[in-house]
Amino acid sequence: MDQLVIAGGQPLTGEVEVSGAKNAALPILCASLLTARPLVVDNVPELRDVGTLLRLLGDMGVLVERAPRRVTLCAESLKEAVAPYEWVKTMRASILVLGPLLARFGRARVSLPGGCAIGERPVDLHIKGLQAMGARLEVTHGDLVGEAERLRGARIFMDKVTVTGTENLMMAATLAEGTTILENAAREPEVVDLAECLVAMGARIRGHGTDVLTIEGVPELSGATHRVMPDRIEAGTFLVAAAATGGEIRLSGARPRTLDAILDKLVEANASVECQGDQIRLRMRGPNHGVSLRTAPYPAFPTDMQAQFMAMNAVAQGTTVVTETIFENRFMHVQELRRMGANIEVEGNAAIIRGVPRLEGATVMATDLRASAGLVIAGLIAEGETVVDRIYHLDRGYEKLEEKFSCLGASMRRRVAGGNA
Ligand code: UD1
Predict the structure, then answer these.
(1) Of 77, 123, 169, 187, whose Cβ has the fewest other Cβ atoms within 10 Å?
(2) What is the atom index within ligand 1 of the atom nearest the CA of 233?
(3) Bridge partner list, 360
């Protein structure tokens, strides 16, 4: 398995461009199932999860053409409406084919995602919502098997704010008969990006960006061209890495207003942040003060940035508390940070971090995508060499990671399994 070898201790400086957002690209690529016409998607990041989804869609019979950063998909007809376990187990977002398949083809068989490293992650709200729209769904041999004649609009209240749940139901509702109202919907910018793509395809959606979505179903959707929004989590990861190493960087191609909660926390940690157009410039004013934070649905602080901030807090002045309210098992990076010398205590869903003057390089194991990003930041701060093992997690969500960090002056290289590249 590939490893990332980091020689820490260098402040990051320079400029880097933000890639397209993984969590917007995945649902948008699935939206191609809703139309017989070509959907052209631009600014698609080169990531393992994107490759996985395109292979899954291709196996279903969707014609997929790839050019650099552009994917053209055409789901004129379908061979099979099946997402097998091999795909779903490597990428839970495969569940996003369920709503579109039921809405347009009236059938779907999607393997149930099991538990994963960051918690149980059920899909009950996806199922409940589709049932309210008239789909018949049952679990057979570990697969979720669904059937529907034309879906009907419904009023659906979602118990919990769920990002992919909102996306699945919104996509299904675009082709339903009548109006669907989704209450307590997710407001994440990636949900808005998907809604904008669907609107360009002819969907009638109102309220995206708020917690009530109104979708008036139409008989069919057309093709469209859509540009995926910039990745706010990738942008946030670079910014925290720069702050934690006492550096100074400029990001281009970002959308600063989707990063409000993150930028606010960086300022609180003692960074100076300036935004202009699609650029964000960050420079540390002095010592890293660290920040206490609590994850919650957008527009509050994103769970996908929690591990990165924890790495920064590990070497901050004073004590901070990080509270995780979205996923029940998202402190897998704590043990690894401790092995690098961090002083972190976990009590329930809160981590108490007492800043130490320095971390020491070590061999650490990545357990999930964002935990891995936290370990990379810890490696950049630490004295000596850090080896991050199992970096396939990082390849799922960060485009050209070592190349981009190297551009910012980091000493980071990939050691390919069985080789020494
Ligand atoms: C998405 C993001 C992921 C991010 C997460 C929270 C994608 C592809 N992934 O994941 O990067 O960390 O949002 O911002 O966009 N829940 C239920 N029942 C359901 C669905 C969810 O109880 O049917 C719970 C989950 O267990 C969790 C919470 O709701 O506690 C939020 O999860 P959700 O927003 O659905 O996460 P994902 O969409 O899987």
Answers:
(1) 77
(2) 11
(3) 383
User: Whose C-alpha lies nearest to ligand 1, atom 15?
Assistant: 23
Tallying the residues shown for the chain, one arrives at 421
pLDDT (tens, 9 = 90+) of the chain, 421 residues, equals 889 999 999 999 999 999 999 999 999 999 999 999 999 999 999 999 999 999 999 999 999 999 999 999 999 999 989 998 888 888 889 999 999 999 999 999 999 876 556 566 789 999 999 999 999 999 998 899 999 999 999 999 999 999 999 999 999 999 999 999 999 999 999 999 999 999 999 999 999 999 999 999 999 999 999 999 999 999 999 999 999 999 999 999 999 999 999 999 999 999 999 999 999 999 999 999 999 999 999 999 999 999 999 999 999 999 999 999 999 889 999 999 999 999 999 999 999 999 999 999 999 998 889 999 999 999 999 999 999 998 988 999 999 999 999 999 999 999 988 654 4
CB 182 within 8 A of CB 156: yes
Peptide bond into 299 cis (omega under 30): yes
Catalytically active residues, by annotation: 116
Taking alpha carbons only, the member of 158, 167, 96, 95 closest to residue 132 is 158
Q: Residue of the nearest CA to atom 5 in ligand 1?
A: 163
What is the C-alpha to C-alpha distance for residues 420 and 414, in angstroms, rounded to an integer? 8
Whole-structure pTM value: 0.97
Q: Would the CB of 121 count as within 6 Å of ligand 1?
A: yes
Atom of ligand 1 nearest to the CA of 124: 23
Say if ligand 1 is within 6 A of residue 123 CB: yes
- Ligand 1 pocket test: pick from 163, 303, 332 the residue with the most ligand atoms within 8 Å of its Cβ: 163
Backbone phi and psi for residue 220, each to the nearest 5 degrees, phi listed first: -155, 160
